[in-house]
C-alpha cells in the first residue's frame, strides 16, 4: 500500500523528469548551428559556420540560394567557388550577386531532410561546410487545415483532443505558475460556494447548480485548450495560420523574435550593409575631453590692417575681395587714401607758392649761367650748382603734389581665402583697424583648454558636433594660464574641408593612464528606447541579440566596453542603428 | 521506490548528454565528432582514411549498410573521398593525395535507412 506522501513524491519526480526532458531535447543533437527560427514568415533554411565563413542555404522553388559571408566581418564573399555534394551528385553553384550563389536543385521539391556538403574555395581559403536542409511537406499543411465535418464527429474529436491538450495545458501552467490557471481555479471555487449557498437557501433549484457547474467546466476547458496551442508548433502550422497558396514559399522578413533576438535574413543583411567585428581585449590610453575651437594656423593666416587712417577705396579692378575669395600673397586688396586736413591744405598751398617762386628764380639763374658759361664769365661750378638746386626744388614740388594723391595699398600678407571682410567703399578706416582677415582653409589648428598638463597629448582627435572626427597633431601648450586653464594647440592633420574658424570641437587627448578592455566603434553602440546603451551581437548566421553594455568614451571614434560583453564575440559595427529599428 | 530512481536517472542522463557532444579523442586513435545521432571518428594515415562509427554513448555501431563521403582539406585543396564499409564499425577509403594526420573537413554519413548526417572536423 502506498502512502499519499509517496504518491505525491512520485508525481513530483515525474513532473521534474518531464520538465527536464522538454528543456534539453533541443540541444542534444544539434551543435554549432542555432535552431532555425520558428516563425510563419521565415522559409526553411540551413546554416553552417567554419573558421572563415558563414553560409546560409535557402531552398525555394527548386533553387538553392547560398549566401556566403566572412564570419568575422560579415561582409559578403564574392567570386568564390562553391562545390556542393547533393543527393543528385556534385554541382557548382553560380554566382548571382556578390556573396550570393544559386544552384538549381529540383531534388529539393520533394519534402524531406537533406544533408549537403558545400566546399567553399575563396582565394586561398578552403573550407567544407555541411548544411542540413529540411523541406517541409506542403501536403501536411493542407491536410491539417480544417475541413467540414459532421457535428457528432466534431464533438468526439474535440473531446479526444481536449483531454491531452487539457493535461498538457495544466502541466505547462503549473510549470509557469500561470495566473490564468489560478484565476480559473479560484473562480470555480467561488462559483461553487455561491451555488451551495443558493441551494441551501432556497432548496429548490438543483438545475441552477447543474448549470453553474457546466459553465465552470466549459470555461476552464476552453482556457486550457487555448493555452495548449501556444506551445505546439504543429498546431500553429496547421490551424492557426492563414493557409499560404500552394507552391509559394513564405517570404523572409527581418523581425524581432519572441525571445528578443532579431532575425535578419541574409539578403536583408547584405542590403543594410551590416558589418561586424570580433571583440578582443586590448590596452588603450584613457582620453580626456577638452573644449576647444578651431583657429587659423598662426603661420598660414594673416590680417590686413591700415597703418594710417583714411578713406577706403577698391583696388584697380574696382571690387573689394568678397568673403571666400582666394588671394595670393602680395595681391592689393584695397587702398587707403589719407585725408588732408584743412590747415594742412593751406600750409601746402603756401609751400607750393614758395617753391614755385624759388623754382622760377633758379630757373632764370640757370638760363643766364648757361649763356655766360661758354665765355668763361661764370664758372662751370656755379652753373652746376644752380642746376642741382633747380632739380632739388622741382623734386620737392612734385613730392608735394603726389603726397596728396598717393594712397596706401593694403596687400595680402599670405596666401589664403578672405575669412573676414570689413571694407566698404568710401569708409573711413582707423589706423590699425583690421580690414581683411586671410585664412588658409587647408591649414587649420585647434586650440583647447586643458586643466591638467597633458602628458601623452601626441595622440589626440577632435570631434565635431555632427560626429565627424579629425585627427590632431600636438603643437604645443602654453605656460600662462588662461581662465585657470592651459591653452593647448593642435594642428588638424586630416581633411579640413567644411570647417570654420571659431567652430567648437571636443578634443579627445590621450593621457598616460592605461585601460584594458574591449574597444568598439562609437557607431556600434545604440541607445535603446528605454535609454540604455546596447550593442548587437551576431549570435547566429541570421540572428542578432541586443546586449546591454556600459561604455566609457575612449576617443573620438571608439568607446570602451566596461561591462556587459566578453571577448571573442561578433559585434555589429555598421548598421546597428538600422538593426535597432527592426520590430 | 523504483520509479523514483528511474526518474532521477533519466534527469541525470538528459542533463549530462549535451556535455559529451564536442570533438574528442576516440578509441581508434582519431578525432571524434558528432554527426546527427551518431559519432564519427576520423583516422587519416597517409592516403587511407578510416571512419569509425559510434552511437550516442560512444559504443561501436556495425558499419554494414552505411555509406559515407569525406571532404578533407589538405594543402589548401579539397579532397573528396568515398568511404565504404570495412570490418566492424569501420568505413574506409583512399585519397588521391597523402593527407596530414589531422586534416580539416567534413564527413557525410548515409545510414541504411537513407537518413543522412554530417560532422565537421576543424
TrEMBL record, chain A:
Residues 341-406 form the CT398-like coiled coil hairpin domain. Pfam families: CT398_CC, RND-MFP_C. One of its GO terms (cellular component) is membrane. Belongs to the membrane fusion protein (MFP) (TC 8.A.1) family. GO terms for molecular function: transmembrane transporter activity. Residues 520-576 form the Multidrug resistance protein MdtA-like C-terminal permuted SH3 domain. Keywords: Membrane, Signal, Transmembrane, Transmembrane helix, Transport. It comes from Methylobacterium nonmethylotrophicum. Residues 1-25 form the signal peptide. It comes from the Bacteria. This is Efflux RND transporter periplasmic adaptor subunit. One of its GO terms (biological process) is copper ion export. The chain crosses the membrane at residues 180-199, 206-225. PANTHER family: CATION EFFLUX SYSTEM PROTEIN CUSB, SLR6042 PROTEIN.
From TrEMBL, chain B:
This is Uncharacterized protein. Residues 1-21 form the signal peptide. Keywords: Signal. It comes from Methylobacterium nonmethylotrophicum.
Amino acid at each position: 500500500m502506498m502512502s499519499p506522501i509517496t504518491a505525491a513524491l512520485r508525481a513530483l519526480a515525474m513532473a521534474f523528469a518531464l520538465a527536464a526532458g522538454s528543456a534539453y531535447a533541443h540541444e542534444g543533437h544539434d551543435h554549432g548551428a542555432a535552431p532555425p527560427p520558428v516563425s510563419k514568415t521565415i522559409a526553411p533554411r540551413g546554416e553552417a559556420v567554419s573558421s572563415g565563413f558563414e553560409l546560409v542555404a535557402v531552398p525555394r522553388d527548386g533553387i538553392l540560394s547560398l549566401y556566403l559571408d566572412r564570419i568575422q566581418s560579415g561582409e559578403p564573399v564574392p567570386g568564390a567557388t562553391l562545390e556542393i555534394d547533393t543527393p543528385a551528385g556534385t554541382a557548382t553553384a553560380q554566382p548571382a550577386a556578390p556573396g550570393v550563389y544559386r544552384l538549381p536543385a529540383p531534388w529539393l521539391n520533394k519534402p524531406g531532410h537533406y544533408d549537403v556538403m558545400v566546399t567553399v574555395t575563396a582565394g586561398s581559403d578552403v573550407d567544407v561546410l555541411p548544411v542540413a536542409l529540411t523541406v517541409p511537406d506542403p501536403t501536411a499543411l493542407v491536410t491539417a487545415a480544417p475541413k467540414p465535418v459532421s457535428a457528432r464527429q466534431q464533438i468526439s474529436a474535440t473531446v479526444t483532443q481536449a483531454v491531452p491538450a487539457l493535461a498538457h495545458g495544466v502541466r505547462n501552467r503549473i510549470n509557469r505558475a500561470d495566473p490564468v490557471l489560478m484565476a480559473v481555479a479560484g473562480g470555480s471555487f467561488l462559483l461553487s460556494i455561491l451555488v451551495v449557498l443558493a441551494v441551501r437557501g432556497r432548496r429548490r433549484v438543483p438545475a441552477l447548480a447543474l448549470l453553474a457547474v457546466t459553465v465552470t467546466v466549459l470555461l476552464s476547458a476552453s482556457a486550457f485548450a487555448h493555452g495548449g496551442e501556444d506551445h505546439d508548433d504543429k498546431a500553429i502550422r496547421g490551424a492557426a495560420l492563414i493557409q499560404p497558396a500552394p507552391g509559394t514559399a513564405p517570404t523572409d522578413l527581418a523581425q524581432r523574435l519572441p525571445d528578443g533576438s532579431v532575425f535578419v535574413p541574409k539578403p536583408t543583411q547584405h542590403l543594410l550593409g551590416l558589418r561586424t567585428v570580433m571583440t578582443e581585449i586590448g590596452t588603450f590610453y584613457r582620453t580626456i575631453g577638452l573644449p576647444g575651437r578651431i583657429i587659423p594656423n598662426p603661420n598660414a593666416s594673416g590680417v590686413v590692417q591700415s597703418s594710417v587712417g583714411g578713406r577706403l577705396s577698391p583696388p584697380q579692378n574696382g571690387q573689394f575681395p568678397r568673403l571666400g575669395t582666394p588671394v595670393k600673397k602680395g595681391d592689393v586688396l584695397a587702398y587707403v587714401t589719407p585725408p588732408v586736413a584743412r590747415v594742412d591744405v593751406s600750409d601746402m598751398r603756401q609751400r607750393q607758392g614758395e617753391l614755385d617762386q624759388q623754382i622760377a628764380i633758379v630757373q632764370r639763374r640757370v638760363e643766364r649761367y648757361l649763356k655766360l658759361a661758354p665765355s668763361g664769365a661764370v664758372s662751370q661750378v656755379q652753373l652746376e650748382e644752380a642746376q642741382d638746386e633747380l632739380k632739388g626744388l622741382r623734386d620737392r614740388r612734385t613730392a608735394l603734389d603726389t603726397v596728396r594723391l598717393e594712397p596706401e595699398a593694403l596687400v595680402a600678407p599670405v596666401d589664403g581665402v578672405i575669412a573676414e571682410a570689413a571694407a566698404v567703399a568710401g569708409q573711413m578706416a582707423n589706423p590699425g583697424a583690421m580690414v581683411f582677415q586671410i585664412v588658409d582653409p587647408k591649414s587649420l589648428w585647434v586650440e583647447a583648454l586643458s586643466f591638467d598638463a597633458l602628458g601623452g597629448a601626441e595622440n589626440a582627435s577632435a570631434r565635431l558636433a555632427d560626429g565627424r572626427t579629425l585627427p590632431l597633431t600636438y603643437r604645443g601648450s602654453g605656460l600662462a594660464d588662461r581662465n585657470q586653464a592651459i591653452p593647448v594647440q593642435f594642428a588638424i592633420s586630416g581633411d579640413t574641408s567644411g570647417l570654420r574658424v571659431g567652430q567648437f570641437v571636443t578634443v579627445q587627448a590621450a593621457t598616460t593612464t592605461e585601460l584594458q578592455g574591449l574597444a568598439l566603434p562609437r557607431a556600434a553602440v545604440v541607445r535603446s528606447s528605454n535609454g540604455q546603451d546596447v550593442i548587437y551581437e551576431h549570435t547566429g548566421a541570421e540572428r542578432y541579440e541586443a546586449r546591454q553594455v556600459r561604455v566609457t568614451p575612449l576617443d573620438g571614434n571608439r568607446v570602451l566596453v566596461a561591462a556587459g560583453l566578453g571577448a571573442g564575440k561578433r559585434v555589429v559595427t555598421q548598421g546597428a542603428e538600422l538593426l535597432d529599428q527592426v520590430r | 521506490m523504483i520509479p523514483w530512481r528511474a526518474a532521477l536517472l533519466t534527469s541525470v542522463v538528459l542533463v549530462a548528454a549535451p556535455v559529451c557532444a564536442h570533438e574528442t579523442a576516440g578509441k581508434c586513435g582519431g578525432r571524434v565528432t558528432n554527426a546527427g545521432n551518431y559519432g564519427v571518428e576520423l583516422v587519416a594515415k597517409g592516403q587511407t582514411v578510416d571512419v569509425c562509427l559510434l552511437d550516442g554513448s560512444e559504443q561501436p555501431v556495425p558499419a554494414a549498410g552505411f555509406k559515407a563521403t569525406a571532404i578533407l582539406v589538405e594543402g589548401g585543396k579539397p579532397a573528396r573521398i568515398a568511404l565504404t564499409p570495412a570490418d566492424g564499425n569501420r568505413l574506409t577509403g583512399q585519397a588521391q593525395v597523402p593527407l596530414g594526420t589531422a586534416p580539416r573537413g567534413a564527413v557525410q554519413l548515409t545510414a541504411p535507412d537513407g537518413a543522412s548526417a554530417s560532422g565537421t572536423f576543424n
